Hints:
2 domains, disordered C terminus, about 160 residues, about 0% strand, disordered N terminus, mainly alpha
Amino acid sequence: MVLFVFLSCKEEVVQKPDRLIAKEQMMDIMYDLALLDGIKYQTPTAADTIKINPKEYVLKKYKVDSLQFAKSNIYYASNYTEYKDMFDQIIKRIDDRKAVIDSIIKIEDKNKLKIDSAKQLKKPLIKTDSVINLKRRADKLEAIQKKEGNKNILTEESQVVK
């Protein structure tokens, strides 16, 4: 009786499917699906612009059909500790990728800030259009003063521009 109980506990709850997806490839598929789900929930409009089904695309990428994926997923899920370890590795992979992307974004933001600062330094204090307008106004004022015979009435503004 003890031997029977011992042997029956060793038996797998779910039988291994004929075309079981290798554990590493299964984790790659689940990683890609997790990224696509994240994109779908982060930017719902992105899914509307893409004309393909993301899950079908991932399965086609790994040359796996949906039945094979479903059976393999059930098989791996039947062993809770192994399945949890798989998800922990996937989460770690996502976190590592996020850290890399965050550091790239920081570098790009820092470079953009440097470029914006450099552009600000290159800008003239007075816009070119303003200088041209001041010059025109000074010329008009000078023309009026010449007509009237008043050469001493040049405004301070027109003297600066001249």
